[in-house]
Every structure is written in C-alpha cells, then in structure tokens.
Amino acid sequence: MNVAAHSRQLGKVHVPTVTLAHGGGGKAMKDLIDDVFVEAFGHALLAPLEDQARFDLGQLALHGDRLAFTTDSFVVDPLFFPGGDIGKLAVCGTVNDLAVGGAVPLYLSCAVIIEEGVTIDLLRRIARSMAMTAQQAGVRIVTGDTKVVQKGACDRVFITTTGIGVIREGVDLGVHRARPGDAVLVNGLLGDHGAAILGARGDMALDSPIESDCAPLHGLIADLLAAAPGVRFVRDATRGGVATVLNEIADASHVAIEIDEEQTPIREQVKAFCEILGLDPLYLANEGKIVVIAPPGEAEAALAALRAHPLGSGAAIVGTVTTGEAGRVTMRTIFGGRRIVDMLVGEQLPRIC
Amino acid sequence: MKYLDEFRDREKARVLIREIESLVATIDIARKRPIHIMEVCGGHTHSIFRYGIEGMLPETIELVHGPGCPVCVLPMGRVDDCVAIADRPDVIFTTFGDAMRVPGSKKSLLQAKADGADVRMVYSPMDALAIACRNPDREVVFFAIGFETTMPSTALTILQAESDGITNFSVFCNHITIVPTIKAILDSPDLHLDGFLGPGHVSMVIGTAPYEFIARFYRRPMVVAGFEPLDILQSIWMVLKQIREGRAEIENQYARIVPDAGNSPALQAVSRVYELREFFEWRGLGSIDHSGVKLRDAYAHFDAERKFAIPNVKIADPKSCQCGEVLKGVIKPWQCKVFGSACTPEMPLGALMVSSEGACAAYYQYGGVKSHVAVA
After folding, report:
1. Coil, helix or strand for A1?
2. Are B45 and B183 part of one and the same domain?
C-alpha cells in the first residue's frame, strides 16, 4: 500500500467484515486499503502508486546529521482500552523509540495483519486513531502493508510500525554513558499503562479508573535536551517497566543505581491495584514515561524542563547512579530498608494470598 | 493508601528497631549465637524482602523463611497430574497465576498452555465456576491450592456449584494445612528455632487456639503477625520479649484481622466439604501425616481426582536440592549447593526458587541487602 489518496476512489468497501478475499491481492484488497487506510492517513506524499516511499536526502539532512531507524510490533489485548487503543499505541511506541535516541521522528510505515472476521468499522477506528496520533506527533505514515490471515492465526489485529527520524547534530545519548553521581529522573506517574491494560482485560473483575499514559514524547524530549544538553541517556520504560530500564543502564554502564521509593511517583489507584493483585508497579509497562540519566550539574535543569512540559508535570528525581556493585539496582524502601530491584524472570503473575 | 501507609511509617520503624536492638542486647542466648525466628508464611517472607526488613534488624536476629508458600511446596507429581488433566481436550483448566510456573517433571502449566492446553488464570474459584456456567459443553477444573486461607473459598464455591446444580465443574484439591507442618518442623532433630511469626491469613480462618501445642509442648513463643512491615517488626519485638521473659505463649499481634476463635462460618464450610488425607507429599519436606485435605465422599462428583484418571505418580525431589534444610533453618538459601547455579528462578530445581514467596527466589531476586545505614 502506498498512501496516495488523490489517485484513488473511496467508499468502495460495502461488506461489514474482512474476509480472506481482502488479502488476496486483487480488487477487494485494493478497495480495503483505499477505503480504510488511505482514507484515514489522507495526505498524498511521495511517489504515489510506487512500492516504496521516497525521501529527499537534502531535506532529511536539514534536521540533523544521522538517521535513526526503528521498528516495533503491537499485539495489545484489548484493542481499545482506557486512554488509548492499538492504533495510538503503534504510532506513539515507534515515535518514542526514535525520540529517546534524540531523533526528530519523521516518517512511519504501518503493516497490519488482520484476522478474517474483523469488522471494517473496527479497522476504520484503528486507522483513524493512528492518523490522529500521527498528526499530533507531527509524523507521516508514508508506506504500509496489509495481510489477512485465517481465523485463529492472529488475535484480530496486529500492527507493526517502522520509523525513520533524524538525530540532531551534537546529540549523543547512550545506555553505557551513566556515571556515578548522575541523577535518575522520570517524567511522571509510573505503571498507568500496565494497570490500565490489566484492568481493561477484565479477568481480574476489578473496576479500575486508571487510564493508559500512552503519548508521543518527542516534544518533551526535545525540550529536555535543549535545557540539559549534557543528558547522558533517555529510554522509554515500556515492557518490564522502570525496573527493567534501570537494570539495563546499570549493566551497560557498569555502575550501580539506587532509587528512593518515597520519591518514586506512583498513582494511589495503581498502588492499590498492585496491592490487591500482588504486582510490583516498578515492573508495570508505561507508554508515556521515560527514564533520564542526567549529570549532577544538570539534574535540576532537566527536572525543570520536564516539569514545564504537559507530559512531564509529575517529573521527579528518583535516584542516583552510584559506585556500588556494577549492574546492581537497589531501592531504599519507604520503610527505611533496602532491597534489590532485579530484572523480572518472566511475566509478573498475581500471587495467591 | 489509607490504612496501609500508616503501617509503613519510617519514623515508627526507627523507634521499633531501637526497641528491638535494646531488647535483644539483654537476651543471653543472643550473645552466644543469633536468635532464629521463623516466619511460617510466604506472605511474610515477601514483605520482609520487599521492605528490606532483614537488613534493618540487628545481626543477632536471623529470620528463617518457613514452608508457608503453597506454590513452593507443591510436589512435581501433583503438577504432572495438573498437566494431565489440562491436556484433555474437553477440559478448561483454571488456576491462580503464580501456580502456572511451577515445574512438573516434564512441564509447567505455562508450557502446557503453550502446547495447546486450555489453561486460564483466575483470581478466585468463583471465576472458575462462572467459566463452567458459560461453557456447559466443557469440563472446567479449578486447581485448588493453598493453606486454610484459600480453603474456605474453594469449599464455598463447591457448595455454590452444588446448589446451582452445575455438573461440569470440579476441583483438583491440593489444599494443605499448616499445623502438622509446623509440628513436623519442630520434630526435626536439626532444629534451631527460637520462636515463630504465625501466619496472619491462615489464622484469620482457624484462629489462634490450634497453635497452643507450640507453646505448651515445644516451649516456643509464637506471635500471629500482620503483613505490613510495622506489623512484622512489632511481632518480632513481641517474640523477643517473650524470650527475654522466659515465656512461651501464643500471642496475636494481628488482632485487627484475626479473631482468636477464627472465622466460624468459614470453618463450617471447610469441615462440611473436606476431610483430612492420611498424608500429603510436600516438596522439600517429604510426606507429612494429615497435612492435606481432600473432598468428602458426599462431594465426590466435584473431585477432579475421581472424575479424571490422573497419573498420580510420585516424583522424588532432585537429589542436589536442599530445600528441606533451608525450610528448617539449618542452612541459608545461598548456602545451598545449587543456589544460583543449577537452581534459578528461570529454571527452578527446588521448591523455594519457584514463587516470589519462596525464600530462595526472594533472596535471588531481592537479595539480602544488609545495611544498617538505612535506619541510622
């Protein structure tokens, strides 16, 4: 599918659900792509009707001096949840993976695997959500693909987005760059996305008002890097949560990290949710939260820049990089003790009692 | 969080730690060797690690992490039975989350699910019953596990299924009882325990009277404890005070939840539905007399063990595994020969590495960070 609205006709899909015919490469497939995806993504950009999007290198170079390139697949269940849906997630996830490298996110691809029987209306809602999020994030979806698979071969809709961005000159963020004395920051309340998804699945029979924090973070990160150019590293704390990111940093930088439970911002509802289910919020996924490593001299500037942005109003300095045992992450508990914060072995499973 | 933060107060902890330090300094045995206090319940073990309590205590107090993690003590043969039931195409097998990872001799329920078995995680046996109502053409089996804490909810679900006339629901009963287990530990010749923190949630059901033998016949103090960190510190202080004063009594620190007489409707449901097994096999501890329950004959039609042919093969614990010694406080988790090498949370060999409530997994994951700086 190459997005080129002007050369295509809309309103041709009249059936209510996707069938294997929509994956056959023929007219039905073309109609589905035109009517659902092209209609949503809208703009005519770059060589219409070609098999690839094409970019002017000179234009790209205006943004910086290196390309950033990333890909991510989205298989979230449920497809729609408080605070977002798979479409919004698929755009934000890839935008954020570019942004945490200091890149200006520019272009996305969108590959969709659809289970037969999914309604056209559901696809439209997802495509429109992607389009709206992309517009808000200032990125363009310029190429893509659809496949239809038999019932049971996938769970309704899977989306893969790939992104290209350009890294500004002079920006050099790296997971190996943390040094003892550096400050560890986050941009707000942790664990909302994970709790929202678990709550929305409904197997826990808990009515939770928690919304996903899913949001594109490139603007926040740009402000952060402008105010604190010495920032060593930024990573979005998605699967595995903040605990996992901290372990990755401690490991790659051969340092220890100590965080303070009292300074770690977690919403009361998320705490309660975790208490009931026996989960640890440090391991819950986030889709709008980053961990920032800032040199001591710039910690306050970084904090102020984060807090000045709407997506960072709850930012906090949660810990420091130390000279302790390399690779070790510890937490000063709210109670005054200390414990190790290790990587998770598998998925967090609720405890019995 | 209201009613929780109050029990996690750092300042009160500081005061209690000072009280504990000055009390233990006056206890004679503490000058010769550390005082060993066993927390029986896995929930306590979890709290102790989560809040870093061990590192806050004086070095003359050693906590021994007891057998009260029902996931951990489940023998491999029983997991194999679960997998055999779950593998039947007509069965929806329902289980609590953390039981899914327990290794059987060939695979865990998580692996069985990946291989195609219909295994579903539930949060309560009533959820399993609801699944049975929604799937009248399938057999729904609930994997019942846990001490007296979860026993009543399984019993009440069975009574509910009976009154609703549901016939496609059954229970694979692995409920175990705490008292014979504590007795088995007290009877072991290599025992080094000076006192116990009693299990809070179990006691909420059974009350405090069933523990009297510990004080009377074994002359060891026990304090039934809550699960918040201040509960645990206060209970440790209460155990030490008994030791200091030469008393051995059953005291109840968790009185806000635990009535001394227990919960009589829950106990009635339990005795209506279950009877004691002659013996039950525990991982790490071997066979313990009267330590498990099964469904009474009147409820045989809800008993998955009778409804389905299960292999019921006893699988011996791996030889290198020293879980039994860790459970009895003879060695510390890291002193086990296979700790962190052949036995890790990814590939648990022994019971205690299985659940986050198991002592070895807790040490492996949370570590025994010994730091008195934190409370200075």
Report:
1. coil
2. yes
Specify the CATH superfamily of domain A5-167: PurM-like, N-terminal domain (3.30.1330.10)
Residues belonging to chain B: 376
Query: Of B10, B46, B366, which is closest to A334 when you measure between CB atoms?
Result: B10
Report chain B residues whose CB lies below 8 A from the CB of A276. Answer: none
> Strands A316-322 and B35-41: what pairing?
unpaired
**Do B138 and B200 have their domain in common?**
no
**Residues B90 and B168 placed together within one structural domain of the fold:** yes
Is the reported ipTM for this assembly greater than 0.85? no
B229 touches chain A (CB under 8 A): yes
Put simply, the answer to whether B1 touches A336 (Cβ < 8 Å) is: no
What's this model's pTM, rounded to 2 decimal places?
0.88
- Establish if B166 belongs to a structural domain: yes
Q: Are residues B87 and B219 in the same domain?
A: no
Query: Touching check for B346 and chain A: CB below 8 Å?
Result: yes
* Domain harbouring B137, CATH code: 3.40.50.11740
Indicate yes or no: CB of A335 within 8 angstroms of CB of B13: yes
Residues B303 and B246 both lie in one domain? no
pLDDT in tens, chain B (376 residues): 777 888 999 999 999 999 999 999 999 887 889 999 999 998 898 899 889 999 999 999 999 988 888 888 888 899 999 999 999 999 999 999 888 888 888 899 999 999 999 999 998 999 999 999 999 999 999 999 999 999 999 999 999 999 999 999 999 999 999 999 899 889 988 777 999 999 999 999 999 999 999 999 999 999 999 999 999 999 999 999 999 999 999 999 999 999 999 999 999 999 999 999 999 998 888 899 999 999 999 999 999 999 998 988 888 888 888 888 887 778 888 899 999 888 888 888 877 887 767 888 878 877 644 433 333 2
Q: Give the nearest partner residue to B56 out of A330, A336, A340, using CB atoms.
A: A336
Query: Which among B14, B50, B345 has the least Cβ separation from residue A339?
Result: B50
Tokens standing for A91? 């755009």
Domain that holds residue B301: 76-173+292-307
In this structure, the answer to whether residues B85 and B15 fall within a common structural domain is no
For CA atoms B286, B287, B290, B294, give the dihedral sign.
Answer: positive
Contacts of A335 in chain B (CB under 8 A): 8-10, 13, 51-53, 56, 229-230
Tell me whether strands A233-236 and A316-322 are parallel, antiparallel or unpaired. unpaired
Q: Is residue B130 located within the same domain as residue B89?
A: yes
Residues B121 and B200 in one domain: no
Q: Is B333 contained in some domain?
A: no
| Closest residue on chain A to B347 (Cα) | A345
The tokens describing B134, both together, are 């929604």
User: Number of folded domains in chain B?
Assistant: 2
Q: Measure CB to CB from residue B367 to each of A332, A340, A345 and give the nearest one.
A: A340
**B106, B133 in Cβ contact below 8 A?**
no
Test B99 with A352 for CB contact under 8 angstroms.
yes
- Is B324 contained in some domain? no
Our measurement of the distance from residue A25's CA atom to the centroid of its chain's CA atoms, rounded to an integer in Å, reads 31
Segment 49-68 of chain B within 8 Å of chain A by CB: 49-56
Smallest Cα distance from B132 to chain A, Å: 15
Cross-chain CB nearest to B71 (options A262, A333, A352): A352
How many cross-chain Cβ pairs, A to B, lie less than 8 Å apart? 116
Q: Which segments of chain A does DSSP mark as H helices, in order? A: 27-32, 39-41, 57-61, 86-99, 120-137, 192-201, 218-227, 241-253, 268-277, 299-308
Give the residue from B81, B86, B138 showing the smallest Cα distance to B112: B86
Residue whose C-alpha is closest to residue B357's, from B369, B345, B349: B345
- Chain A contact set for B147 (CB, 8 A): 353
Q: Under an 8 A CB cutoff, do B97 and A271 touch?
A: no
CATH 3.40.50.720 fits A183-340, yes or no: no
Domain chopping of chain A, boundaries: 5-167, 183-340
